[in-house]
Amino acid sequence: MKKSLVVLALLAIFWPTSLLAGVGQSYEEFKKSDLWAFFRMAETERFELLNGHLFVRCKPGAFQEFIDLELLLSKTGNVEQGNLYLARSWIANAKSMNPFAIDIAKSFITGMVVAADQAKVEPLTTQIAKGPAKPPHEGFLAYVGRQVEYREVLSGSVLAMRNCRIANAPWLFIMVTGKDVQLPHFAAPQTPDSSLFLGEKELQPFGVKSLESKPNPHMKMWTNSDAKADISRIIDIRWLFPTAADAQYFHVTTIRENSESSQPVTQLNIPSFGQNLLVFMRGSDDPMLKAMKLDMHMYYFLFYHDKVVAKVFIAGSSKLKLEDAAKIGRLAAEMLASGKESKDVQEMKKNEAVAPK
After folding, report:
1. How far apart are CA 27 and CA 32, in angstroms?
2. Quick one: 23 and 166 in the same domain?
3. I need a labelling partner for 59 at 20 to 30 A (CA). Which of 87, 199, 298, 339 fits?
4. Which of 119, 152, 178 is the last residue of a domain?
5. How far is Cα 248 from Cα 242, in angstroms, rounded to an integer?
6. Which residues pair with 43 in a beta bridge?
7. Which of 298, 185, 198 has its CA nearest to residue 249?
8. Tens digit of pLDDT at every position of the chain (357 positions)
9. CB–CB of 164/147 below 8 Å?
10. Do 159 and 222 belong together in one domain?
């Protein structure tokens, strides 16, 4: 650990102002960048999304429990989006800002935006490194946790920051994506209509009953009183947004939160459903379940349709198979798809149809 501290301390002093990395470059070129080399990044896992894109998770050589790097790669292997997660407890304490957190945040932002935007993010990275100006940059306020979110559309990149909670702990999420990926602001979800949720008619065959002890407008809970049943709990969650673009943005940028840091299912032996379906799970060998001495399976189905983002969580015995849990997720997707598409979704599909392949 001492060696790692020395290395990162030297990086904070001698870090170059211009980096090779950036959205739009190939993943192989990105791995040759200073950002990758100096922080000794290493790929820890990857999985192919159902749309053919690759989702890659990476870890640095030090402070791994406080840092996560995610990359979204195109079908051709180019970096389309970078996500950096920093634990809020590591960014600062009551007395001072962590210089290592400053260094990697500054380096990520400068390194992930395209070359033409590096000068444009300098006011922000300067305040992150040296402290706020008057008035303080909105991005700096998000970095120190005094503002929930920040977003800026640059000439060739989009930079966004958001304070969130993962596993009930505060984290800072920093995202850089290409400008051609049209993403809206972090719109606040609206209260979804009850018709968007699975009901007794759909779930009766699975032997569960509604559990309404703590009403939540975004969530419906179902439980099974039979301890021997394969399915013991279903949590059905919906977020309704003003536009389909807002829903898509929320879905893409909350993967780590909504999957609850569980493991992605890379080999799906089930037909896809919903839009941009992502499946995660915890098995009997999961560290969290082991610590709790629970022999069970948990599945997380994440997808969206039109203006609605859905998360369907299903827990059960270790006998519960993916294909059986997926039946419930598919019911939720079919229910959402049965509604009439909004005008903005029709427009999005129209644009996709004419977009060059």
Report:
1. 9
2. yes
3. 298
4. 178
5. 11
6. 58
7. 185
8. 444 444 444 444 333 433 345 788 999 999 988 788 888 999 988 876 655 678 888 999 999 999 999 898 888 899 988 999 999 999 987 678 999 999 999 999 999 999 999 999 999 999 999 999 999 999 999 999 999 999 998 998 999 999 988 877 899 999 998 876 544 445 678 888 888 999 999 999 999 999 876 678 899 999 998 888 999 999 999 999 988 877 877 887 788 889 987 888 877 778 889 988 889 999 888 888 888 888 899 999 999 999 999 999 999 999 999 999 999 999 999 999 987 554 544 554 555 444 444
9. no
10. no
Q: Which domain holds residue 117?
A: 2-178
Tell if the pTM clears 0.70, that is, is over it: no
Asked if 237 contacts 311 with a C-beta cutoff of 8 angstroms, the reply is yes
Does residue 201 share a domain with residue 171? no
By C-alpha distance, which of 320, 311, 272, 259 is closest to 45?
A: 259
Q: Is residue 352 part of a domain?
A: no
Residue 268 sits in the same domain as residue 292: yes
What is the Cα–Cα distance from 290 to 108, expressed in whole angstroms? 35
Shared domain check, 258 and 200: yes
Residue 349 forms part of a structural domain? no
Identify whether 135 is preceded by a cis peptide bond (ω within 30 of 0): yes
- Residue 178's DSSP bridge partners are 157
Residue 356: inside a domain, yes or no? Answer: no
In 234-243, which positions are buried (b, 16+ CB within 10 angstroms) versus exposed (e)?
A: bbbbbbbbeb
Question: Residue 124: which residues within 8 A CB-CB, separation 6 or more?
Answer: 109, 137, 139, 140
| 3-state SS assignment for residue 158 | strand
235 closest CA partner among 257, 252, 210, 253: 210
* H-helix segments, 48-151: 88-91, 99-112, 122-130, 138-143
The answer to whether the beta carbons of residues 27 and 115 sit under 8 Å apart is: no
The CA distances from residue 124 to 16, 106, 293, in Å, are 17, 9, 46
Whether residue 171 is found in the same domain as residue 265: no
**Domain annotation covers residue 355:** no
CA 339, CA 304: separation in Å to the nearest integer?
13
